Amino acid sequence: MIAEIAARGYLRFGGWAMESTRTWEPWEVSNDIAISRIANGFEGSLGVLNATDNELADSEVFRADITDAGLARLAELGNPYEVYGDPWEGNRLMAAEGNFPPWVP
Fold it and tell me: pTM of the full predicted structure?
């Protein structure tokens, strides 16, 4: 799914910047190499295929940058709370603020 989103131009792959003045930098690699980094790990980060759940919770293999095309697609899809309802309705600690349709799983 991530590969498809990137192929459509909705995001750019990247990760932690090596310079301390920035937090993110794009990976100047093909989408296939980016997907391999996510799956198998990169620069000391474990990949999703070879890490335990606990290791993944503390790991960040990649960060994506949403593109203008991605922002436009999100606008087309609409606010998920307004479209599908609030999945946390009834949970006062997690429920969204607003008047949304009932959540239907």
Answer: 0.71
